[in-house]
Amino acid sequence: MSGKIEDGLIKPTSSMVTYSSYLKVHEILSLQNQLSSPPEHDELLFIVIHQTYELWFKQLLHELDLAECELGKNNSFGALKTLKRMTEIQNILTQQVSILETMTPNDFNLFRSRLNPASGFQSHQFRSLEFRMGLKDSAYLAFFASQPEGLKALESAKSRPCFYDHLLWFLARQGYKIPQEVLSRDVSTAWQPSAPVEDVFLTIYENHQDHLSTYILLEALCDLDQQFTMWRYRHIAMVERMIGSRIGTGGSSGVKYLASTVGKRFFPELWSLRGRIGSNAGYGQPVT
Ligand code: HEM
Q1: What are 94-142's pLDDT values in tens digits?
Q2: Residue nearest to atom 17 of ligand 1 (CA)
Q3: Domain range holding 161?
Q4: Domain for residue 14, yes or no?
C-alpha cells in the first residue's frame, strides 16, 4: 500500500482505491430520484427500501448459484452454508417491512399516484427467485413486455433447472430412490408436487438419525421456504395498512391478489410430509 502515514492515518492519494471508489458510493447516492415535486419527505424512504431489496435479491440469486454448484459437487455442507445465509437475508427482508410501516397512508398518498403503473409485479429479480425455486408461472412474463432485460433474465430463469431439480439429482446420486420420471422431467415447467418424492422425504424424517446430513439440509430448505412465506405475510399486512382494499398500481386486486399467493411453497413435499410423520405411532391422519 502506498501513501503517507501521519498521526496513524493513511492519507489516500488519487491513485489509491478508496472506500468510495470501490463501493461506488457517489454513483449509488445519485440514484434516488424522487418523482414528487416539491419532493415529499417519505418518497426517499420508499425508494431506498426498494433499492435495498433489489440489492439483496441480487445477493440471493448469487447465493443460489453457489448452492446449486455445491450440490453439483455433492457438497451438501457447502450448500447448507449458503442456504443458511439466504435464510438470514430473507429474514432481514421480512423485518425491513416495519421501517416502511412508519410511513402513514396519508404520507404515502402524497406521492403514490406518481408511481402508477409501477409495481413490485415488475421486479424481475423477485420473479427470477420464484422461477429458480420452481414456481415457474409463465403468466408473469407479460408484466415484463416493456423491460427487455428483465424479460431475458426471467426467460433464462424459466428455462434452466430449478433448485429442486439440483437437490433431487443430488439425492439420487446419494442413493435415494427418486423416480426416473422426476429426474428427467421438463425443467422449463413449474415443479409439480410429487407423492414418491414426499415418500422419500418421509422415510428420511421418520429415520432422521440414519440420514442426519440430508435431514439437516431439508430442514434448512424448510427454513428458507418459511422465511419467504413470512415476507409474503408481512408484505400483505403492510399493503393493507397502506391502501386497504384499493387496487394495486400494477393493476391487480391488491390485498386480495396478494392473499392468493401466501400458499406458495418452493418445496411443497417438505410441508405436506409433516402431517404424516408419526402416523403409525397414533398421532392421527392428515385432513385430506
Ligand atoms: C407502500 C408500500 C407498498 C405497497 C402499498 C405495495 C403494494 C403492492 C401491491 C398492491 C401488489 C400487488 C401487485 C399490484 O397490483 O401492484 C404488490 C406486489 C409486490 N410488491 Fe409491493 N407494495 C409495497 C412495498 C413493497 C416493497 C418494499 C417491496 C420490496 C421489493 C415490494 C415488492 C413487491 C413484490 C415482489 C410484489 C409481487 C408479489 C407477487 O406477485 O407475489 N412491495 N405490492
Answers
A1: 999 999 999 999 999 999 999 999 999 999 999 999 999 999 999 999 9
A2: 120
A3: 37-275
A4: no
106 in a domain, yes or no?
A: yes
Query: Pocket residues for ligand 1 (CB within 6 Å)?
Result: 49-50, 53, 100, 108, 119-121, 123, 126, 235, 239, 242-243, 248-252, 254, 257-258, 261
Best mutation site among 45, 89, 106, 119 for ligand 1, i.e. most ligand atoms within 8 A of its Cβ?
119
CB under 8 A, 24+ apart: contacts of 94-99: 94/227, 94/230, 94/231, 94/234, 96/49, 96/52, 96/53, 97/231, 97/234, 97/235, 97/237, 97/238, 99/45, 99/49
Ligand 1 atom index nearest CA of 140: 40
Q: Is residue 219 part of a domain?
A: yes
Q: In this structure, is residue 288 part of a structural domain?
A: no
119 CA distance to ligand 1 centroid (A)?
Answer: 6
Q: Give the total number of structural domains in the chain.
A: 1
What atom of ligand 1 comes closest to residue 243's alpha carbon? 5
Predicted pLDDT of residue 134: 98
Residues 6+ apart with CB under 8 A from 15: 2
- Percent of the chain residues past pLDDT 70, beyond the cut: 94
